[in-house]
Amino acid sequence: MDKQKEKKKWYKRWWAITLYVIIFFSAISSMSNTSNTNSYSSPVKQKTSNPAEQAANKEPDYQLELLNFKCFQQYDFYHIEGQVKNISDESLKSVAALGTTYTADGEFIKSEESLIDYNPILAGQTSPFKVLMTHNPAITDCTIEFKKLFGGSIPTKTN
Fold this sequence. Notes:
single chain; 159 residues; alpha+beta; Immunoglobulin-like; 4-stranded mixed β-sheet; 3-stranded antiparallel β-sheet; 25% helix
């Protein structure tokens, strides 16, 4: 009987370790995908009178609306927290908040991501979010954007 219990424990441990390894490599892959794109600057929009060009420059179909956020240091940590609302017609699963910090000169310092509090976030629902990272004294500015946990960015309306 003890052998069976030990065997079950071994299988549980093996599955847990395998799951952690998969999550780890998925997170690494997700980080490398976001660090290679310049998604922090907004594109410059030019006015045009050509209808075809206007259609090409159409704003994205927003799925989320950033209601508010703030950045602050507390103890040895830097916090980026606020609220986001699902303005699409469907629920969104595994939405991650991606917080990025910069120096006074606009140089990138670091970024971290975490899931928003409600998963899924239902159509019309508002969810709090919080991104936590170790503090760096050079941080003077921060930004927030939203993405699918293992995917691309989510079009977000800002006020």
